[in-house]
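We recall that each integer encodes one residue's backbone shape. We quote one record:
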Amino acid sequence: MSTSEPLRVHVIGVGKMGLPMARHLLAAGHAVTVEDPAAGRLSLASEAGLAVTDGLGAAEVIVSSLPHDAALLAVSDRVAQVASASAVWIDTSTVSPGASACVAERLVAPGVQYLRCTVSGNNHMAEAAQLTVMASGPKALHERLLPLLRCWGPNHFWLGEAEQARLMKLVVNLMIAQTSAMLAEALTLGQKGGLDWEDMWQVIGASAVASPIVKAKSAQLSRNDYTPTFTVGQMNKDIDLILGEGARLHVPLTQTAATRQLMAAAQAQGDAELDYAAIIRVVQRASGLVV
């Protein structure tokens, strides 16, 4: 398999991240087939010119973007049974390192090579091919697949031979979740004290704490727009993975555990499908402010 030539690629999961990633592979000249359990997502894929068919058995490269551990394990059964022994599997899902390690064991007998390629960035960054790709697995395989992986973004990191990419994604998402908790408390403090909402965002954006994630959120949240790039429910899933790794590794994640409770409150208050930054609304409500 030469990644300098067009490849037969089968993409499993064409959600908000998987669909633009598949489209970029198609635009690069690869022959791309896709599957997804949601008919609506398949319609969007077909409109984008992607072939909606089960191309798993014929694929040289399998790419998956899946919602959770159970989906990854189910797909691994199919890959082990159906995929060619010369195929490689690139999984981009946010899942537990433990589940991913189980997949690696399942793929030994059929001989399918396995690259964990977690991605950092939202669906808008996926559309713009500006994702950061964090890989682990065989180093030679990563180097061979880099021309294909560069279809998704400019920043690439190889982190080790096993589950390092899975853990690195959880580390990044821990910081993203904690940024939203920081903003919730800071903004509510200022608002309760009489500061103008838009003024606060302008000052924060010009201050030392204006990280890329804060800047990315400011244009939307300064208008109290909680249209999701990543929902409260999705962030709850990821924080549970983070806390699980903390327990496994005996690392106290006290602040993250508190943020999980804010996310649970947001979900209980009907904000589960809003952007995860809706925990700002939880702190506002708790402070007696009108949301």
In short: The mean pLDDT is 96. The chain has twelve helices and eight strands. The first helix runs from residue 18 to 27.
